[in-house]
Write a structure and sequence with these properties.
0% strand
Length: 67
């Protein structure tokens, strides 16, 4: 019997691309504060923002709210 990996199921049918962002510490701190204030993960915050800017849908299914 094959053992499955723990954790949530993938949210997309295709392999997601990773994006690395560099920004000044003050901007990064403000960004993190905004994300926490909205109760979101950084992943979903950026995904939603990119979706709004481009019109490409972002699926937040199975998203886990930030604690």
């Amino acid at each position: 019997m094959e053992r499955k990996k723990p954790g949530p199921a993938p949210r997309w049918d295709e392999k997601p691309k990773q994006v690395k962002v560099r920004m000044p510490p003050a901007l990064a701190d403000a960004f993190q504060k905004e994300v926490r204030g909205r109760g979101m993960t950084v992943q979903d915050f950026i995904g939603r923002l990119a979706s709004e800017m481009t019109g490409v849908p972002y699926d937040e299914q199975e998203a886990i709210p930030a604690a």
